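Input structure tokens:
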């Protein structure tokens, strides 16, 4: 196969949802179709617990799971699918945001009874930042839920996206009959508790002939005719280009737990979802078929065995062909590196790979050379964009609990924050270290991992902050004045960039109003003025 063909047959995506909408169940069904797992329950039993826990064994267990299920690769109808796992737990939201930088499209799962939920909203914002194409899967049709037209209206309004249903449900809950495939003009019947087979699919060339009345009864048939007429009147024709430009999201209905509507979703997905797309660097746009290899690190995972301090850096291949044992250029460190045992993730198993193509995710063993966002190339000095850190919302001072282990503590903090577990800021006036996270669980993770992996101990002291945001300005003098004036509220991030620690929404607003020459940024990636 040529590189071009390899690229064309790859689909790298993530599933996003508010917890409980059915992401794990859908993942599992997709893997079953792809033959990546043999039994239902394989993913489910590995699921990260939904509720925050202070049980360290649980945290460790979760870390183990998230290595195993970080990337699930499988083949389906000649297409190489890479499904990237996004943690459902809210405290790991930042991990999810970063993973979304490595996908080419997403499937968003929505519970038909609950509609749009807070996490759905946040995750969609992240997709919007990168214009990621979104397919919507409306789940749990076997349960009572909202009227599908109302639900689509709600999604369109709340998420500010345009939708186009590609399948349509016939009734819902106890009387759920199945879905009508608006494109293939076929009816797929739902038999609760039974596996979906091709036997319960009927081709319906003309909705007005009597066949459908015989199958689902006259009332349901009439409602369907009426619905389809409405859909065709209200929603514009589905154009793949619009979806690829993230202007329209196709919608599928089904019930993941019953494996219903999942095949239609997967078949639709491989037909329309984008293969690897060009990506922006700080130098130029790189096309996947660029002859040179390039990629970026979007996730770093520490080894669970504290005796082996190595980590796995997850790299998304963006262009060219990655080859084992070849020298590549680590742009930030300005040196070459080669990898003798890069791993691929197929069917939840890790195996050493000799080559990888755009869209693939490979695991690189790392002894502390990588940070999230690092770029590897064949020599070109460029950096992939769009892997920002978000301004954290929870803060604690780090207090060294064992002065004899200061070095270990500093190293541990440095490395754990490279992994993206939290963000580290150093206060300007007293050099105190402040950790910022998006979830409370992260503080426990850090404390625990510092102890077990670095033999360092720390305590946390409360610091009352509203937000930390990066400050920049074209006017260097104004920026310096601000930093001087606010020195008690200023810190530096790991790159030495100035960060304003706002104590309240009001303080932030005042600072913004009084300093119109300054820009306050809420994600770490911004154009330096
Ligand atoms: P998540 O990863 O998005 O958090 O959701 P998950 O798949 O774990 O699903 C959440 C719950 O919803 C599970 O029930 C799951 O079985 C159920 N579910 C998923 N899809 C459907 C569906 O199509 N119809 C119905 N009725 N339920 C569905 P649970 O009670 O939390 O877990 P379990 O005991 O069933 O495993």
């Amino acid at each position: 196969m040529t590189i071009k063909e390899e690229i064309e047959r790859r689909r790298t995506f993530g599933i996003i949802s508010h917890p409980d909408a059915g992401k794990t169940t859908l993942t599992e069904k997709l893997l079953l179709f792809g033959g990546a797992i043999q039994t239902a329950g394989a993913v489910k039993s590995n699921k990260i617990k939904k509720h925050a826990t202070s049980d360290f064994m649980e945290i460790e267990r979760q870390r183990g799971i998230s290595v195993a299920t970080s990337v699930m690769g499988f083949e389906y109808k000649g297409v190489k699918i890479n499904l990237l796992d996004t943690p459902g737990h809210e405290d790991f939201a930042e991990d999810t945001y970063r993973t979304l930088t490595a996908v080419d499209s997403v499937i968003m799962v929505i519970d038909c009874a609950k509609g749009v939920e807070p996490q759905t909203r946040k995750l969609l914002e992240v997709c919007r930042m990168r214009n990621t194409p979104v397919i919507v899967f409306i789940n749990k049709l076997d349960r009572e839920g909202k009227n599908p037209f109302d639900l689509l209206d709600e999604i369109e309004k709340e998420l500010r996206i345009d939708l186009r249903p590609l399948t349509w449900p016939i009734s819902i809950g106890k009387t759920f009959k199945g879905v009508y495939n608006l494109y293939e003009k076929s009816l797929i019947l739902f038999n609760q508790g039974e596996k979906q087979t091709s036997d319960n699919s009927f081709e319906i060339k003309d909705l007005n002939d009597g066949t459908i009345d015989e199958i689902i009864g006259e009332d349901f048939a009439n409602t369907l005719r009426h619905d389809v007429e409405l859909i065709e009147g209200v929603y514009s024709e589905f154009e793949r280009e619009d979806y690829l430009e993230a202007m329209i999201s196709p919608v599928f209905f089904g019930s993941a737990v019953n494996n219903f509507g999942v095949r239609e979703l997967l078949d639709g997905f491989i037909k329309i979802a984008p293969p690897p797309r060009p990506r922006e660097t700080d130098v130029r746009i790189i096309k996947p078929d660029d002859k040179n290899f390039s990629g970026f690190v979007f996730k770093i995972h520490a080894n669970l065995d504290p005796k082996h301090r190595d980590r796995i850096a997850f790299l998304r291949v963006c262009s060219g062909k990655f080859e084992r044992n070849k020298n590549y250029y680590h742009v930030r460190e300005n040196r070459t590196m080669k990898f003798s045992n890069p791993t691929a993730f197929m069917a939840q198993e890790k195996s050493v790979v000799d080559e990888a193509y755009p869209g693939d995710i490979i695991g690189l063993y790392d002894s502390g050379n990588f940070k999230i966002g690092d770029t590897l190339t064949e020599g070109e000095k460029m950096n992939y964009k769009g892997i920002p850190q978000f301004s954290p919302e929870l803060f604690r001072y780090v207090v060294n609990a064992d002065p004899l282990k200061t070095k270990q503590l500093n190293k541990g903090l440095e490395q754990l924050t490279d992994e993206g577990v939290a963000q580290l800021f150093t206060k300007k006036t007293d050099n105190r270290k402040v950790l910022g996270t998006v979830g409370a669980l992260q503080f426990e993770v850090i404390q625990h991992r510092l102890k077990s992996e670095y033999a360092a101990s720390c305590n946390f002291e409360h610091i009352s902050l509203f937000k930390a945001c990066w400050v920049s300005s074209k006017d260097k003098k104004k920026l310096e004045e601000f930093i001087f004036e606010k020195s008690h509220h200023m810190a530096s991030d790991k790159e030495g960039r100035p960060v304003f620690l706002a104590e309240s929404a009001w303080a932030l607003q005042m600072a913004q109003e009084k300093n119109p020459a300054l820009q306050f940024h809420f994600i770490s990636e911004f154009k330096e003025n």
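Residues 17, 19-25, 44, 88, 139-140, 142-143, 255-258 surround guanosine-5',3'-tetraphosphate (CB under 6 Å). The chain has a mean pLDDT of 87.
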